[in-house]
Amino acid sequence: MPVVSIMPSGKTIEMPAGTPLVDAILAAGDSIAQKCAGKGECDSCHIFVHEGRKSISKIQRKENEQLDSIVGVGSKSRLACQAILGEENVTVELLGFASGL
Ligand code: FES
């Protein structure tokens, strides 16, 4: 199973392919805001994916529209509720406002 590594906490968790990244983050014991309850309609679960981007699900139209509206969005940006884990390990970064730190 792929391993999800989470920055800045350094937590890691093995999760099966097909798991939304937000579920992996929560299962690892980190916190992440989900203002729209995972519908892809807000930006509270914005994360950066540093490694393994190619293996996770492609950005769909709704996620793309939300990302377009986020200040500070970059090529590593994803919405954790919309990005689905693939077969490869990934490293994600929780952003300050969303990590509860
Ligand atoms: S929780 Fe709202 S877009 Fe992910």
UniProtKB/TrEMBL annotation:
<dbReference type="Pfam" id="PF00111">
    <property type="entry name" value="Fer2"/>
</dbReference>
<dbReference type="InterPro" id="IPR001041">
    <property type="entry name" value="2Fe-2S_ferredoxin-type"/>
</dbReference>
<keyword id="KW-0411">Iron-sulfur</keyword>
<dbReference type="InterPro" id="IPR012675">
    <property type="entry name" value="Beta-grasp_dom_sf"/>
</dbReference>
<keyword id="KW-0001">2Fe-2S</keyword>
<dbReference type="InterPro" id="IPR001055">
    <property type="entry name" value="Adrenodoxin-like"/>
</dbReference>
<keyword id="KW-0408">Iron</keyword>
<dbReference type="InterPro" id="IPR036010">
    <property type="entry name" value="2Fe-2S_ferredoxin-like_sf"/>
</dbReference>
<dbReference type="GO" id="GO:0046872">
    <property type="term" value="F:metal ion binding"/>
</dbReference>
<keyword id="KW-0479">Metal-binding</keyword>
<comment type="similarity">
    <text>Belongs to the adrenodoxin/putidaredoxin family.</text>
</comment>
<dbReference type="GO" id="GO:0140647">
    <property type="term" value="P:P450-containing electron transport chain"/>
</dbReference>
<feature type="domain" description="2Fe-2S ferredoxin-type">
    <location>
        <begin position="2"/>
        <end position="98"/>
    </location>
</feature>
<dbReference type="GO" id="GO:0009055">
    <property type="term" value="F:electron transfer activity"/>
</dbReference>
<protein>
    <submittedName>
        <fullName>Ferredoxin</fullName>
    </submittedName>
</protein>
<dbReference type="GO" id="GO:0051537">
    <property type="term" value="F:2 iron, 2 sulfur cluster binding"/>
</dbReference>
